[in-house]
Amino acid sequence: MLETSRAGNDMGLLDGRAAVITGAAQGIGYEIAGVLGGAGASVVIGDINEEAAAEAAERLVKHGIAATSLRCDVTEEDEVAALVAHCADTFGPVGVMVNNAGITRDATLRKMALTDFRAVVDVHLTGAWNGTRYAAAAMREHGHGGSIVNISSIAGKVGNFGQTNYSAAKAGLVGLTKASAKELAGAGIRVNAVQPGLIRTAMTEAMPQSAWDAKLAEIPMARAGEPAEVAQVVLFLASDMASYITGAVLEVTGGRYM
Ligand SMILES: NC(=O)c1ccc[n+]([C@@H]2O[C@H](COP(=O)([O-])OP(=O)(O)OC[C@H]3O[C@@H](n4cnc5c(N)ncnc54)[C@H](O)[C@@H]3O)[C@@H](O)[C@H]2O)c1
């Protein structure tokens, strides 16, 4: 995964900055950590899976990236506060916050339990609210602005069958992004969202083949995206290349549902 980012000409875009990425023990979050690290950021991996997070940080260190990890359940305010503080203690104040942690608990409206609705909304939406709130507070205090990127989903734009919980949470992230972008612009903090489409990760590999094929048929580019193709967009939004972009939602879908 890191080969493309490290070998590319992105070196230096985030030199001297510290980035916190939630849910970065694997999948898209891990790729984001690698790409931001490849561009010069020090990275803090927060994940509910402590062991996988530590292994992920070790792998990044082996690739020459300054990385550390901390167990963090994004639904717990204290743990998110501790994650942001861990960044300040280890690498300096957070300059980039990526709210990426996510889960799915799919079922139709008829069959979904309230606990499954609440769990998904809590991880994606409350988790990102916690991340935005604590990162913004640290960025304000430091006084040098910053960039917050929320990982939404195309499901938040179009709604997915069997995902009322996930689609609601991902649409909610758009509102959170825009409202906080307005509140934080004066402090030089930009807040944007990315809406990936079908990306090849553990989350989507769990999907039945028929569902995978049906989604592929909707994609003009006729292929799934790779985690690196999401991570590169996050790097753009995190960096000064996007210095005049805030409150934006970028779709990374190969043209699906344009
Ligand atoms: N894979 C896709 O096609 C796709 C498409 C659109 C959006 N997304 C979004 O991208 C993000 C990453 O997805 P992925 O495919 O890499 O999933 P993944 O399941 O591979 O990784 C998710 C990570 O989040 C962690 N996590 C779960 N609950 C957590 C919690 N409460 N606190 C902290 N960490 C927690 C997991 O341990 C895991 O490491 C999610 O927000 C997902 O909704 C994925």
UniProtKB/TrEMBL annotation:
GO terms for molecular function: oxidoreductase activity. It holds the Pfam family adh_short_C2. It comes from the Bacteria. Keywords: Oxidoreductase. Residues 17-199 form the Ketoreductase domain. InterPro entries: KR_dom, NAD(P)-bd_dom_sf, SDR, SDR_fam. The keyword Oxidoreductase applies. Gene3D superfamilies: NAD(P)-binding Rossmann-like Domain. The keyword tRNA processing does not apply. Belongs to the short-chain dehydrogenases/reductases (SDR) family. PANTHER family: 3-OXOACYL-(ACYL-CARRIER-PROTEIN) REDUCTASE (PTHR42879), 3-OXOACYL-[ACYL-CARRIER-PROTEIN] REDUCTASE FABG (PTHR42879:SF2). This is 3-oxoacyl-[acyl-carrier-protein] reductase. It comes from Streptomyces flaveus.
